[in-house]
Write a structure and sequence with these properties.
two-stranded antiparallel ribbon; 298 residues; 2 strands
Length: 298
């Protein structure tokens, strides 16, 4: 009879004792798998690179998993683009005909984005935890978690609004200076205005581009794992980002350059870079959960 071992739960990554039939955290049924070399290698890779490795190891593990799952990821991304296109057409029709109010349109779009983000996040977590990705399971989780994920997405929307408002306040003096004649040469004035705009970009736009999407993604992972209520998940994510901001900064810079390269390749490259980044962020989440600020014991 083949010897059996237990993996971390493929739903929530809880490390269960030997011979357990059900997960002690989320209650999901645990699968007893034959101790094959390929299976054992997969388990050891997660335990070594995420549970016992560095943040960089986890990031690289996410990239390695994405290469293995690339055909499915590209197919899912193309399907996502088609769905987003339909949503874009809905917004055009709603705006042109005046059928729905702005509030109703906002709520519909919020639920729609939350469903998609939750679905993608579930598939990313399953891939990182070496579970065969099921689009039916991912879609089901997306529907079931629309409301809690929507609350997290509201944090993202508020963050974008605050950033836009601060940038508008920052750029106000620039526009005012352009309207008056100062006893300065045009070249010197343009130089100073350029410095002012650059500072705004560094202080406002860079954090918004780097930290806000990661914060939202980590919080959504947290909600899907049922480890935090939706109103506390962003707080957990902020604590992790503050504690590991420099390590995460350089990792996310690499992701941004990856997306830029994807855009350069006739925009087609983002079909691959977006899901790669999703899996890398899922690996980062699991590392932070197991090794980060106030790590969990499972």
């Amino acid at each position: 009879m083949a010897k059996t071992i237990q993996l971390r739960c493929s739903d929530c990554a809880f490390l269960n004792p030997d011979e357990s039939a059900w997960c002690g955290m989320c209650g999901s049924k645990l699968a007893n798998e034959p101790l094959l070399n390929k299976t054992q290698k997969k388990k050891e890779s997660y335990e070594k690179l995420i549970a016992g490795g560095t943040l960089g190891d986890a990031f690289n593990f996410g990239y390695a998993v994405s290469l293995r799952e690339m055909p499915a990821l590209i197919g899912g991304t193309i399907l996502l683009i088609i769905v987003l296109s339909l949503a874009w057409l809905f917004n055009i029709v709603a705006h042109a005909s005046g059928i729905v109010t702005f509030v109703f349109t906002f709520v519909v779009n919020l639920f729609f984005v939350s469903f998609l983000w939750g679905t993608i996040s579930r598939a990313s977590l399953d891939s990182i935890r070496e579970r065969k990705v099921s689009f039916g399971r991912a879609i089901g989780e997306g529907f079931r978690n629309i409301l809690p994920v929507s609350l997290v997405c509201l944090v993202f929307a508020v963050g974008v609004g605050i950033t836009a408002g601060l940038y508008w306040l920052w750029s106000g003096p620039v526009e005012a200076l352009r309207q008056i004649n100062l006893p300065l040469s045009a070249g010197y004035l343009n130089f100073m205005l350029g410095v002012w705009a650059t500072v705004a970009m560094v202080l406002l736009m860079v954090p918004a581009v780097i930290w806000l999407p990661l914060l939202t993604q980590l919080a959504i992972f947290r909600v899907l794992d049922r480890r935090s209520p939706p109103w506390f998940a962003p707080v957990w994510a902020i604590n992790q980002i503050v504690h590991y901001h420099w390590e995460l900064f350089w990792i996310l810079i690499r992701e941004i350059f990856m997306h830029i390269f994807g855009i350069i390749v006739c925009y087609i490259g983002v079909i691959a870079t977006l899901p790669i980044a999703g899996l890398q962020n899922a690996a980062i989440y699991d590392w932070l959960r197991l090794n980060g600020d106030e790590p969990e014991k499972y």
